[in-house]
Write a structure and sequence with these properties.
single chain, eight-stranded mixed sheet, alpha/beta, 307 residues, 8 helices, 8 strands, 36% helix
Amino acid sequence: MRTEVDRYSGAAPLRRGVTIASRDVMHLHNRVAVCSLAADLAQLGGGRMVVRLHPFTLNTANSVQCANVEAMLPRSGLGGVVIVCAHLDSRVDPDLDGSPHDPANDPAPGADDNASGIAGVLCAARALLELAGAGTPHREIRFVLFNAEERGLAGSRAYARDRRRMRDEIVAVFNMDMIGYDAVPPSYFEVHAGGSGEAEVIDRSRDLARLVARVASETCEKEVVPQFHLGGDASLPASGHSDHTSFHEVEYPACLICQDLHLDAGGNRDANCAYHTTRDKTVHACYAAEIARAVAAAAWVAATLPR
């Protein structure tokens, strides 16, 4: 977990001779990160996964050309698709950072937001490839890194709408967005399934959220405590603010897994003060690994459990 976060936040070289400064869509290193993620997933798959870029246009004044990254592990005996995902881009907000910021040239390390999610997807891919290698029947599993989440969820919206047009049978989406900050005990994390989607979609999303919490109690080596945000109210925390929303919009079940970022009914919150600043350079790797472990386990159950 720590190795991957360091590579994609610029704390360590991404590969020999290349260290990225930013994953902002306006920065040249965004494309470097995209290409590197595609190469990483292809290497992890060892020929077992189909890796592709999913291009889309970000509608800005300059119509920026972007791409998501998708790696597909073909199904073995069961129908439907399970997605493990995170957003790959980063961002710095000048009003939070305290100084002017040029997204095309200045650093935006985004270790927690969202190199932690990137690392979570890569770690989950390693685990699920190993499990799938044992020959258990499973649904198609996709590992997807979305671009331009910080620009209105543009990448995931383009991807989800394309998947709906293609009539893909997506049965579960597990989205990791900021899983790397844990300063105040106990180690809470959040699972969100609420939103403005159809009631049946939100109900299925709640089932996914409960699955993440259930397997966390069984598979995590250290205790991490889930907090649920499961209502159907679009005003709930995180509704409309991460890539799970894009799937709700086209009637696919999806949940968001993140650190203790939002106030809950008990007033708990452990927010990262480095959010959207150039100071976002480190994560609590063991905590992030526990969350990623829970997500990987939930995805495997969703991929292998007969209906």
